[in-house]
Structure formats: C-alpha cells, structure tokens
Amino acid sequence: MTFPRTGATDKPRLYILAPQQARSVSATLRATYAFTPHLTLQAYSQLFTAGIYYGPRLRAAVEPGRRTVRLDELGPAKPADKPFETTSNDEQQVGLNLNLILRWEWRTGSTFYLVYAHQSSNDVKTGVVGGPSIGRELGALSAKGVAHGDSILVKVDLLSAL
Which of 54, 30, 53 is closest to 42 using CA atoms? Predict the structure, then answer.
C-alpha cells in the first residue's frame, strides 16, 4: 500500500527575497608615552562597526513541484505582500573599547600598575530602509540600548631582596 506524498512542494509558494549588502569597518590605535624610563602610559582603542542592509523586496511565485527559481522570475513585491515590503531587517552593530595602563617601576622588579578599561556596544535593528551609513552606525553608540562597562584594576608587584 502506498500513501500519496504531501508537503510544501504540493502547494503554490511565494518567496520574498531582497539583495543584501554587508559591511564592516574597524580602526585600532595604540600609543605608548614614557614620562621617564620608570613611568609609562599605554593607550589602546578600538572602534568596530558593521551593518547588514537589504534592498527592495522581490517576489517569486512558484507553482507546485520542485523546481529552481530563476533570477528572471523575480519581480517587485506587490501591495498584497505589504508586510514584507514595509518592514526592514537592516541591522547595525557598533563597539568601542578603550584601555589605559599606567606603569610605574620604582625599583627593579617592583612595579605598580593602574589600568582603566571602558567598553560600549550596541546591536540595533534599524527599522529604517536605506543603505550603509557610517554616521548612522556610529550614532548607535548613543542610541537607546547601548551597553557600557568600566573597570579599574590596581596591581602591585614586589620583589624582595634575597
């Protein structure tokens, strides 16, 4: 006995597609300043931004059966597809890391470290249809939902004479 096969390929299907553009930019800066041979300041910063952007929505209506959808079958989304056309899945991510390290060696092998670290990041679903924009991505650092973290560390290494 055989049973008829049923599934998604036995019904007409509608695909909503869109061209995608992804981009990221990262910049890192390191610096060291020596006040004296025993007192130095090191700085490190990194800015990272990334975005995924979708173009105009396209539709492909496919009859029952298994077949490949060709590019020439894609057309603009219709008003009946409005929920897909008016929403945006564009995303932006931004992160900023800063570190400052003050190092003082008051005698050989005995060192004092003071470290400050800052981190900010945000991941935003924009809801705005548009293309890549560095200004919008950097603006996410001051937008709602940004997470900040600050740390201070003090470390002292002592070398006692034997």
Answer: 30
SS3 of residue 84 by DSSP: helix
Q: Distance between CA 121 and CA 94 in Å, rounded?
A: 6
For the entire predicted model, the pTM comes to 0.66
What type of residue sits at position 120? Answer: S
| pLDDT surpasses 60 at 128 | no
Distance separating alpha carbons of residues 91 and 51, to the nearest angstrom: 6
Nearest Cα residue to 90 out of 138, 144, 136, 145: 136
Q: What is the pLDDT of residue 127?
A: 60
Write out pLDDT tens, residues 12-48.
878 888 888 888 889 999 999 999 999 999 999 999 9
Residues β-bridged to residue 36: 39
Nearest to 62 by CA among 7, 6, 13, 9: 13
Q: What is the C-alpha separation between 137 and 5, in angstroms, rounded?
A: 49
> What letter represents residue 78's amino acid?
K
